[in-house]
Amino acid sequence: MSLSRPTRCLFAAIPTPLRPLPKRRLHSSPTNNAKHTPKHASLKASDMGLVKNEDPTSIHKPYSQTEKAALSKKYTPAQIAAIEAGEAAISPDDLANQGAIRSDPMSLKYLDDLSTIRPVIDKPIRAPETNYDPDLRFKTEDELAADMVKWVQDLPDDADRVEWMKFVDNTRLTVGKEEAELNPRSALAPEIPKLKIPGMRFNATVDSDSEENDPGIQRLMKQSGFTAQQIRRFRVKNLVMHRVVNQTRMGKVQSQYFLTVAGNGKGLLGIGEGKSVETEDARKQATMAAIRNMRPIPRYEERTIFGDVTGKVGATELVLMTRPPGK
Fold first, then answer.
1. Which residue has better confidence, 102 or 183?
2. What is the mean pLDDT of residues 44-68?
3. I want to staple 45 with a disulfide (CB 3.0 to 4.6 A). Which of 3, 17, 50, 193 is the partner?
4. In whole angstroms, what is the distance from residue 266 CA to residue 256 CA?
5. pLDDT attached to residue 132
6. What is the pLDDT of residue 168?
7. Between 206 and 288, the higher pLDDT residue
């Protein structure tokens, strides 16, 4: 490098860090990287009295001989050994501090009942392989008729309807091992139970008077899974109703706008919009959209929500507050 080069060229050769360009705010709401200050101070579980300072060994005691005898009736020795090894691997201090069960009114019912078997989650109880019979077959008509004749011959004089019910329940329909018919061995997965919430299904049986119903109602029944009688019993309320104008090249086109909410009063809630030139068509569109958009809402004691909820969209802020009984 030449010594005659100006000094300012030496300083200009040092790279300078690029400054980030300022972001242009296109919305009145603050940016995501802005510092958020909570409105309320955080509360610890110990300040609320939910943590009890007790001796972990006094809370989680080892199994007694009576408890082990009760466990041996339900579990195999290998399963009992696995249970004891799993409990020994967990520190009692962690169970006392982190595994405390809440007793306040807003606690959730998250403890499972281990005495019941869920066919979808738990491992299914299958029949033993000895119940399989390769020679199993259905009885012929002559064999069934012979069983019927034998039942009639042995029928007492003072027989009643109960005897017929016993015959239907105890008569075998196959020839072979009795266990193969009563408790067959199968590798198929258990049947998935039906959902209790009809709005979560996508197929529904159409009523016998389908020709007399509206096609829109029939389509709504197939989409939501509700019957026509259930749709009529829903509670529907129009929240917003006003006239809108759409400017087109043919002029101004006036329409009616509806914002409707629908529910069944038992935890299902939906909201829908509708717009049409005719008022009745717009109201029907909003009602069907609200029923189609129904979702289950978790409720505390089947009457209110779990805690307060705050939502904000643009300049609109909505606050939902849980209420005590009677309010």
1. 183
2. 74
3. 50
4. 31
5. 86
6. 87
7. 288
CB 255 within 8 A of CB 275: yes
Q: How far apart are CA 295 and CA 199, in angstroms?
A: 8
Give, in order, the Cα–Cα distances in Å from 293 to each of 200, 213, 277: 10, 21, 23
DSSP string, 89-153: HS-HHHHHHTSPPP-STT-------TTS--TTTSPP-PPPGGG--TT-EEPPHHHHHHHHHHHHH
Report d(CA 240, CA 172) in Å as an integer.
64
Report the pLDDT value the prediction gives residue 206, as an integer from 0 to 100. Answer: 45
CA distance 281 to 262: 17
DSSP category for residue 213: S
Q: How distant, in Å, are the alpha carbons of 216, 300, 317 from that of 34?
A: 48, 35, 19
Q: How far is CA 96 from CA 59, 90, 240, in A?
A: 8, 11, 52
Could you tell me the CA-to-CA distances from 24 to 21, 108, 315 in Å, in that order? 9, 44, 19
- Please spell the DSSP secondary structure of 287-327, one letter per residue: HHHHHHT-EE---BTTTB-SS-EEEEETTEEEEE----TT-
Q: Which structure tokens are listed for 304?
A: 């209110």
Q: Are 325 and 303 in contact (CB under 8 A)?
A: yes
Percent of the chain residues topping a pLDDT of 70: 68
Task: Please compute Rg for the chain using Cα positions.
Answer: 35
- CA pair distance 70, 93, nearest whole angstrom: 27
Q: How far apart are the first and last CA of the chain?
A: 86
pTM (predicted TM-score): 0.37
Average pLDDT over residues 234-243: 92
Question: Mean pLDDT throughout 40-60?
Answer: 70
Residue 238 contacts residue 260 (beta carbons within 8 Å): yes
Beta partners for residue 235, in sequence order: 263
Residues 172, 139 contacting (CB under 8 angstroms): yes
Q: Are 295 and 270 in contact (CB under 8 A)?
A: yes
